[in-house]
Amino acid sequence: MTTTRAPALRPGQAASPARGGLRRRLPRRSPWGHPWFLEGFTWLYLIWSLVPIALAVLFSFNNGKSQSVWQGFSWRWYFSDPVNSVLHNPQLHAAVLQTVRLSVYTTAIAVPLGVAFALGINRWRGVLPGGFNFIMLLSFVVPELIFGVAMFFVFTVLFTQVKLGTLAETLALVTWNVSWPAIIVQARLATLGRQYEEAAADLGAGQLETMRRVTLPLLGPAIFASAVLVFSGVIDDFVLVDLLSSNAGNTPMSVLIYSNQRGGNGGPALNALGTIMLVMSLVIAVIGYIGYRWMTRGERGSRVAALTTIAGTD
Amino acid sequence: VVATGQASRPAGAPPAGGAATRRTRPPGRVFWVALAAPGMLWLILLFLVPFYAMLAIAAGQLNVILRSPVPAWNPLAWSRGNLMLVLHDIAGRGAFIGPIIVRTLGYVAIASAVSLLIGYPAAYFVARFAGRRKALFLVLLIAPFWISYMMRMLAWVDLLQNDGYANKVLGWVHIAPVNWLGGNPATVILGLVYGYIPYLILVLYAGLDRIDPALIEAGRDLGLGRTRTFVHVTLPLSRQPILTGMLITVLPMLGDYYTNQMLSGAAGTSMLGNVIDGQLQTPGLQGQGAVLSVLLLLVLLVPMIYYVVATNRSAREAG
């Protein structure tokens, strides 16, 4: 919702020189002083939250089979080990490819579907679209396990032509992620208002032309942000793909890490897999942030607003 | 977090002459219906129908020879067989699901309370006091959101092994090594907190950030101290974010079956999600898994609907 408005912006936060000047003349600083205890607590939380991950990344470079004792640096779990590296082990690299495949398929289907749904529901007011909007929002909060169980059953007893595997995984992931574009686009539509489209209509543009030349360009940042969220959401997904995968060929990285570690086949190769997921997600996040900032460059907004949008908060 | 198009127009947007233009233009409703139709059809076929299939299997029978579930599509043919079996397992003699439900509720209650105790101060600090470093703090708070859940669990598996860093640190202060993995409830709760706290913090941050600083300054100007301003101004205003934040962590925790499998794997720490997952994988028990899922869904339907309505309302207020 902060795509353009940034209501959270407080005095002194905006970086513009005018604001800075105002700030110097009218100090808004709290007389209570800086809460050092809270800041220390926050840093402790951040260390607890991030250092274990940094160590897990480190152990993906371990020159040994241990995930807990450092035995020197090596690339063996990525590509030099002829048997167990991500590059050479067919299961491991199949998992990387499957994750990428599912992310691409799901984003390609869920984003257009969700954007069209949001536009239609938003403009066609009434009980029926309102009800479907509510169902879509429920799909956003239903526990993933329950939804996964429902999907498992529908593919095993009703739509039996859909075998468990890539197709079942993609269909479930699309339903699970379609609410991102649907919610974000509706929020953007609410902030845009309809005046641009009405102007286009007054100038003689038809509905399709208005859509193509006015509405969709205005929705660009929202569509882009939702694509980023869907893509990274699929990389991180575990429950649906765990319940709906059927063999090694359609098992993505998250499930492979889970089943191998649990089955006693742990090893730094799993850390390497996790690190690859992490790098993929971070690359997507950086692309998302830079792209979103670039697309909204003419608008009032801030780094903070772009960050919260790309994280799906707001 | 969740907004719908029903949110009102922002204050800054000029009023559009809706009524005037609508008269000059055909309504074009078919166009919007056509746009919404694919999504609606998708939601029917791949959201509502699957839940009905789950219900039909829960109320269906078992093919004793194939050990596969036979769905009862017609409500008139619904059978109570699976439900009775499940209820017996929950509360009957030798019930094994009942204690697991109690354990699940205990773990989830402790984990969400701990998450709130850690998450609220951190979110409060970043929303109110981070100042110019807000973007930096936000990046660090958001980072775990972008890192796969399994990678984050794997990180703790590494740290908590018998020869791992956690026990090494304990060794420095001469505490005997602890067997963290393999059935330690504290480890499972730690995993739940670690896994879900980023979502809670983001919701809390968004809510706390929306509090008008003028209200807090008013508290200060009226002579309240820092603590009393917090208790009388900030805390009442953060009731809504706390509630929605708790929901967004409690709902998935109740269906979690992987955190304890990664960090413990022992039967003594299994949760409701493990029961459902196990029944789903076991021929002959799938109908009972469906019953448990339906029961869990029915229990959670009220908080789910509350969440959707509450976030809708706060989005409307913010817009």
Output the keywords.
heterodimer; A: 314 residues; mainly alpha; B: 319 residues; two-stranded antiparallel ribbon; 2 strands; 69% helix
Oligomer: heterodimer
Round the Cα radius of gyration of chain B to an integer and report it: 25 Å
Largest interface: A-B, 121 and 125 residues
Q: Total number of β-strand segments of chain A? A: 0
| Principal-axes shape call of chain A | globular
Quote the average pLDDT of chain A.
Answer: 84
Report strand % of chain B. under 5%
Helix content of chain A: 55-70%
Over all CA atoms, what is the radius of gyration of chain A? 24 Å
Number of helices of chain B: 14
Spatial strand sequence of the major β-sheet of chain B = 1-2
Mean pLDDT of chain B: 85
Helix and strand run of chain B: HHEEHHHHHHHHHHHH
Tell me the β content of chain A.
under 5%
Compressed to H and E, one letter per element, the order of chain A equals HHHHHHHHHHHHHH
Report the uncertain regions of chain B.
1-25
Percentage of residues in helical conformation of chain B:
55-70%
Number of strands of chain B: 2
Uncertain parts of chain A? 1-27
Shape of chain B: globular
